[in-house]
Specification:
The chain is α+β, with helices and mostly antiparallel strands. The chain has 6 helices and 12 strands. The protein has a 12-stranded mixed β-sheet, sandwiched between helices. The longest helix is centred in the C-terminal third of the chain and has 15 residues. The two termini are 17 Å apart. The model has no long low-confidence stretch (mean pLDDT 95).
């Protein structure tokens, strides 16, 4: 078999070439019906041209995620598309900022989902946003978290809605944790968004600090997130004390 369990790491797999030489190490998982080859790392001295050909054949139909810039570039040179370039970050919660004071009438309320929040996030994630438009499937996934706890339930102490003086939702931070797609027991920020009518007033930082303090209250050791290249929120994460953990370059491997 071209993909076999790693003999020394039961959660990992190895991709072998036709000559039975190991080419790459990875972690296979299912992401809500999508097959994922995560953390794909070429092994020392593995020829990239052979690895690309093997990936196309034996990982067809997978979403491939790699921290290796050379592998991602070789896949793109072979005609595939880099669908996402992002950085995974962590905050170790040793130095958590103080809560951000909100203007009169504004508050952070219990997490949840409503039409005002859906409208605000749809406007915030416009066609020029680095993460792309807010999709109906995004709304369905958030609703499922609150309704059924699938694929993961919200971590209530670290999640919140931004409430305006009229009592309407104007943004939120949504967290879960621990989550099955990380190796560490971190709180994961799934989404942090502010409606355009409330942007540029420090509310994003207020929501981020709430998530950090809520994660510490929940007793988890760190907070993680993924920020796509070009997202201006990266500056906010850096200023709040997040550090780079790894790059995540995503390429979808077409079906054979």
């Amino acid at each position: 078999m071209p993909v076999r369990p790693h003999p020394d790491a039961p959660d990992d797999s190895l991709l072998f070439g036709a000559d039975d030489a190991p080419l790459a190490r990875m972690r296979l998982r299912d992401d809500d019906g999508t097959r994922v080859a995560a953390d794909v790392r070429p092994l020392p001295k593995a020829p990239l041209t052979r690895l690309v050909a093997q990936v196309r054949r034996d990982l067809a139909g997978h979403r491939l995620e790699t921290p290796d810039e050379a592998l991602a570039a070789a896949l793109v040179a072979d005609g595939l598309e880099l669908s996402r370039a992002a950085t995974d970050m962590r905050h170790d919660l040793t130095d958590v900022p103080e809560p951000v004071a909100l203007p009169d009438g504004w508050s952070l309320g219990a997490p949840g989902w409503d039409d005002d929040l859906a409208t605000g996030l749809d406007a915030a994630y416009g066609p020029d946003h680095p993460d792309g438009r807010w999709q109906p499937s995004d709304t369905e996934q958030v609703r499922a978290m609150f309704d059924t706890g699938e694929p993961v339930p919200p971590l209530v102490p670290a999640s919140a809605r931004l409430i305006d003086p009229d009592g309407r939702s104007a943004g939120h931070v949504l967290c879960a944790g621990p989550v099955p797609w990380t190796d560490d027991d971190c709180v994961w920020i799934l989404n942090l968004g502010v409606a355009p009518r409330a942007q540029r007033r420090g509310f994003g930082r207020a929501l981020l600090v709430h998530a950090l303090r809520g994660a510490r209250e929940a007793g988890l050791p760190s907070v993680g997130l993924s920020v796509v290249d070009g997202n201006p929120a990266r500056r906010m994460y850096d200023a709040a004390g997040f550090r780079t953990l790894t790059r995540v370059l995503t390429v979808r491997i077409p079906d054979a």
